UniProtKB/TrEMBL annotation:
Signal peptide: 1-31
InterPro entries referenced in this protein's UniProt entry, alphabetically: AB_hydrolase_fold, Esterase_phb, Plant_Biomass_Hydrol_Est
Pfam family, one: Esterase_PHB
UniProt-recorded name of the protein: Acetylxylan esterase
Annotated SUPFAM superfamilies: alpha/beta-Hydrolases (SSF53474)
Transmembrane segment boundaries: none
Family matches, as Gene3D superfamilies: alpha/beta hydrolase
PANTHER family: FERULOYL ESTERASE, UNNAMED PRODUCT-RELATED
Organism: Streptomyces achromogenes
UniProt entry keywords in alphabetical sequence: Hydrolase, Signal
Enzyme Commission number: 3.1.1.72
GO molecular function: acetylxylan esterase activity
Amino acid sequence: MKRLLPALTGLVAMCLTVAAGALTSPVPASAATPVAATLTEVTGFGYNPSNLRMYEYVPQNVGAHPAVLVANHYCGGSGPAMYSGSEFASLANQHGFIVVYPSVTRSSKCFDVSSPRALTHNGSSDPAGIVSMVRWEQQHRSADPNRVYATGFSSGAMMTNVLLGDYPDVFKAGSALSGVPFGCFATTNGSEWNSDCSAGRITKTPQQWGNLVRTAYPGYAGPRPRMQVWHGTQDTTLSYVDFGEEIKQWTNVLGVNQTPVLTDHPKSTWTRTRYGGTGTTAPVEAISVQGVGHSLPQSGMVPMALQFMGLI
């Protein structure tokens, strides 16, 4: 994953800056007093096998049983950087949902989307720690278990795919900006990087991709989360091929035809396709961004992602 860092340097400098002095004192897991309009670290939030840090943003107008959005940072980033450099908190202020910002502590600052322990339900890596954060919000903020969502860019988009694959019983929908399919980055040698996946050399049938997701939680027969994916056509860090492979995977997982039922252009350089439904909450939605490399998100993408997930 360290190879993501040079490609992201310009993006981080332009769009994602770490907030200085934005944090209050850590909140122990026993606390239940609502936090208003500031980013706060929560400690002792539960099972956390990979030593993630948890930050939450609770707007002043939070409802009695709010939705929760997990916003996963890019490689080399952090929860506070994602908070300060994105629109999620301001939109939470408008619509009353909680944002959880997981933060990686390993040296690469990349999420584990590669190891066998990450690619399984109730495993022992980052996904398990993130789900502990969600459950803490449900226990201490009375968050609605039927309104839990995930999103992220780059490494965070990969984690979004992994969370929806590992925990279909927790997440209802997700939006992955410049990611890869669940299981595409899998390694067994301890490496965080899979060059074949990043270069678009791993292609599978829809059934094969779907089986990787289903194998992550054997025996699960409940509903599957809806998925939205975004990708720039000129992405050379995570190949544009991966965009098509994500579409194959999630249309198969959700049991819908790979032929889009709607194609339109929200912006002149954006091509949106919907699968299994024509409305805002279609089972699968994909947006291809013409002429853009590994530099998402652009203006307007976050509101569209939140609309897909049902948060606005």
